[in-house]
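Appendix B, example 12.
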Amino acid sequence: MSASLDHVPAAKSALVLFSGGQDSSVCLAWALTHFDRVETIGFDYGQRHSIEMTTRTTVLEKFRETFPEWSTRLGEDHVCDLRGFGAVAESSLTRETEIVMTERGLPSSFVPGRNLVFFVYAAAVADRRGLDHLVGGMCETDFSGYPDCRNDTLQAMQTVLQLGIERPYEIHTPLMWIDKAQTWALSEELGGEALVDLILEETTTCYKGVRAERHAWGYGCGECPACQLRKTGFEHFLEARTPAER
């Protein structure tokens, strides 16, 4: 499994798991930089922050408008209805319950097997579309402790997909070993200030789907784990800039 920015084959196509949040938007920019054609896939699993199903479309439109050099590479968007799965998976992301640490040592926002299900559906779509590269924004540096975000899990998932579908899938996780400050820096590296601004203005990362107030780091409730990671990462990103860059 590729988790770096190197050794990505040229003249290839990729499918990006795209929620319209910060991480998946950076991954989309990464894929558009490294692949000739990129398609996207989103998942409606009954998430509380269902606003992402609307904002993700806006983010895709903004990518096309803001980066004409990428727009020719950005292909079809796919949406999968996984509400049946969300109804089975008990989580604070699919129920109106407080996000707390459970006795298992995992936050109650953990949706059991969510990323595994996402990759199975993505691989099925990729097989139909003739795509061998799958790109996801999973990370185990700054993350909530979800076991299906770990590199070992996704390496195993890549093997399962290769064996189960008999296609040479490769899972790419360009954010796996970087923190949120570095994720902001990567967005600037890939798309300059225009991409940083797009992520600030258009993406939704908040677990509660709040877009009522614009903070320095973007929109969100400011309290959930996703907002806290995004906020802290942005502050550290700004601190790392030289005075001339601020």
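The longest helix spans residues 180-202. Helices lie at 22-34, 52-66, 68-71, 83-88, 114-129, 151-165, 180-202, 225-240.
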